[in-house]
Amino acid sequence: MVFGLFGKGAAADLLIVNGHIYTQDADMPWVEAVACKDGKVLALGSSREMDAFQGKTTEVLDLQGHYMTPGLIDAFGTPVLDVFRQGTLFIDETMSLDEILAFVSEQLSKSDSEDTFFAYGYPSTLLNDLDSEKATGMLDELGSTRPILLLSKDGYGAWVNTIGLDLAKEAAEEEGIEILSLPFTISVLNPFSYEEIQTAVINQAWDYSSKGYTGVYNSGSPDVFDNIYQNVLVAMDQEGLLPQRHYGSLSIFTAINPDFVGHKLLQNRTKCIELDELINYNTLKLYLSAENRSQFTDEYLRAVCTSAMERGFDVEIQVTGKDVLLDCYKTLGSLKIGGAGKSCFTVAHNESVTEAERYEHLAPGEILEVGLSPLQTGDNTQIFETLTKGGAEKLALLDKLGTIETGKYADFAIFESNPLEGKGLPPVAMTLVAGDVAFDNEEDQPEEWNRLVLAQNFDDFDDEDLSSEN
Prior knowledge:
Elements: E1 3-4, E2 14-17, E3 20-22, E4 30-31, E5 33-37, E6 40-45, H1 47-50, E7 59-62, E8 67-70, E9 72-74, H2 79-85, E10 89-90, H3 97-109, E11 117-122, H4 132-142, E12 148-152, E13 158-160, H5 162-174, H6 182-189, H7 194-210, E14 213-217, H8 223-238, E15 245-252, H9 258-270, E16 279-288, H10 298-310, E17 314-319, H11 322-333, E18 345-348, H12 355-358, E19 368-370, H13 380-394, E20 412-415, E21 428-433, E22 436-440, H14 446-454
Parallel strand pairs: 2-7, 3-8, 9-14, 10-11, 11-12, 14-15, 15-16, 16-17, 17-18, 18-19
Antiparallel strand pairs: 1-6, 2-5, 3-4, 5-6, 8-20, 12-13, 20-21, 21-22
């Protein structure tokens, strides 16, 4: 029986035939062939049945007995931070002020470069009790001839020494800029090697592809990093080399004005409007723990969640600590959430709670609860479901991803053997995104991808696009 959206007269763009195709759809778990049109699944059934959808321009992909599944989704990753960890110093947020100064001093002594010294991750509240001159003077004592730029964990604060500030002020005067913003300061001090970042992003995309991933979610990184990373994705897209759908989020670690949060969400979504749903921005992510609970009051949580909801964004709250989690339930219970067309709420935690504790304030099914990391144990079928349907559900995209069904995105992973058997997933032969081959293990190499993207002329990126508009 053919499962399809249209009648037999509809011609497909692509027919995928002669395979073992695991759909993850309980009503029709295995088929032999799939027809695709306009980047979505048009119909599925036997190879003979799919012949009805072949037209003059239809391409045919013969799986020759290989196994095809929905594309895998990394819904728990931190791809942007992973890239920047390769060439950026990260500060342990548990360090005290003196420990951070000692860390910076040690790192400065290891380098004789005159380029801007950059490190990321100091606690956002670290300098609250210091006046700006004293804070600047502390960095001057570590190095007064080389710019030093430290970025706070939330990405909205910077700690700069005098020479760094002077360079930024001089550039601002030359350009007639009255307010010295963080994005402008970063663009002037230029602490990143964009070519190295580009190479790291491309290598990461290739690595994801080689494991069968066609969807990636990002959280936990500041706008400064996100914007640079996205510029590489855009350059890859322009070369037809973007092998995953990317889903971004705005991460909030400290209480920031809810109206500003709403503005940033819309601003970042606007950048993705014309990118064919390959680069997306759908989520506000809050990090809630005992350490910052005093900032994230019930009133603030309601205000910031409402700000996101009113603009059509989903909300994910990562919670550490059972008492904090129960408070979170109470706050969410006071919001009008759920229902058709409404924002989706996800709470990620590893706490043990009873049904009574969970539903004292929440209606069953009102929020989605997930662990802080994907399932790592169990048989391949369970792990595989976590990486397909589970990932799509966490991203509130189960209507588009996670299974092979009519109307969903034609995002697939093709394996050389059955991925549901044995331990670990088998080698990936190919991935498809929106019905197009995104990765071919026999033909694609990261070095060639990097060469093609480099031809986009990385230096053409606008400085204002390299950082957030804080």
